[in-house]
Design goal:
12 helices; 22% strand; 40% helix; UDP-N-acetylmuramoyl-L-alanine:D-glutamate ligase; alpha/beta; nine-stranded mixed β-sheet
């Protein structure tokens, strides 16, 4: 039976504009960065690093927003809650999301911090090293949470990145309460190992309380969450605590465990990895779209793999190919 909810998914996340530039490994080393990771920076560091970057491309990003962008292209009904400022980048972010058909009505800040931006250095191997200035995005207050929209959405999708700021953390806790009270599902993505280092105890407590119905992680994140270097032990430990665990493994594909049943798919073949920015976000887009359509877990995983494959073959986290056609062709 088709859902009667207003939205298939509502997401709360950082409203960020990505600034993407090619970089040699030497720049990564000179800056003392850990390739493939994400770190938070302040306004001064953002200005300094931007000056050190080569020619860049600006495009709307943000983990959860990227996921919704992919879902919207796949035909799902989506809405987003996230804070921008009333500035140029804020206008770009708002336009880009709405142009895709994603409902977005969070009022922009009229004064204070500027819209968030993520300075992304892409090395020749396609790895992206992210340097994020949260700006206005971490000022999302509980009053900005549209409780009617959340209650009217089948799935509430939350990104771990936004757990860091106290204001947005409180807003997300309230959103979880509203979603669960309405009998909806809550999906959570761990986002990055450094977030788990900072808030792993919180995440483990939320899981223990049974507040997550779907949990997304990659290999590094699941081991950090389970506090073990043994991948299989980590998967088994966490899978026993959540109804549906989804773990991406890069070139080794992805797996999902639901009710003790494990399903795995291989990664889709790609000729050249151009930029891994948004790979996990688009995997989630494909998987959640499959969930919204009531498809079997194997098909959901395949949809995620197809979307991730398409995104790593281009620059940037928003699809430049027809994802819907690609998925349809793959599923037959």
């Amino acid at each position: 039976m088709a859902s009667t909810a207003r939205f298939d998914v509502i997401a709360i996340g950082n409203a960020i504009v990505d600034v993407i530039a090619r970089a040699d490994d030497s720049l990564i080393e000179a800056e003392g960065l850990s390739k493939g990771s994400m770190r938070l920076i302040d306004a001064a560091e953002a200005e300094r690093l931007y000056a050190a970057m080569g020619p860049a491309v600006e495009m709307s990003g943000g983990s959860a927003a990227n996921t919704l962008a992919g879902m919207a292209v796949l035909g799902q009904r989506c809405s987003f809650i996230g804070q921008v400022a009333d500035d140029q980048l804020g206008h770009v972010f708002t336009h880009d999301l709405r142009a895709l058909g994603v409902a977005y009505e969070t009022p922009a800040l009229k004064e204070g911090a500027p819209t968030a931006r993520c300075l992304i250095l892409v090395t020749p191997d396609g790895q992206r090293t992210m340097n994020t200035f949260l700006g206005a995005s971490h000022l999302l207050e509980q009053s900005m949470i549209d409780e009617e929209w959340i209650a009217a959405s089948d799935i509430l999708y939350l990104e771990g990145y936004l757990w860091d700021p106290p204001l947005s953390r409180a807003a997300m806790r309230r959103a979880i309460d509203v979603s669960r009270a309405a009998g909806r599902k809550v999906a959570f993505t761990l986002s990055d190992a450094f977030i788990i280092d900072r808030h792993g105890d919180d995440f483990r407590q939320l899981i223990a309380e049974g507040l997550f119905d779907i949990l997304f992680a990659n290999e590094v994140e699941i081991q950090a969450l389970a506090e073990t270097g043994d991948f299989e032990a980590a998967v088994a430990s966490v899978a026993a605590q959540v109804p549906l665990l989804v773990v991406t493994r890069g070139a080794h594909g992805a797996l999902a465990i639901e009710g003790g049943v494990r399903t795995e798919v291989a990664a889709e073949p790609v000729d050249t990895v151009v930029d891994t920015t948004g790979a996990g976000d688009l995997f989630a887009a494909g998987f959640l779209s499959g969930q919204a359509q009531g498809l079997p877990i194997a098909d959901c995983l395949t949809m995620g793999a197809v979307c991730a494959c398409e995104i790593i073959a281009q620059v940037g986290p928003r699809a430049q190919t027809d994802l819907k056609a690609k998925v349809a062709a793959r599923l037959g």
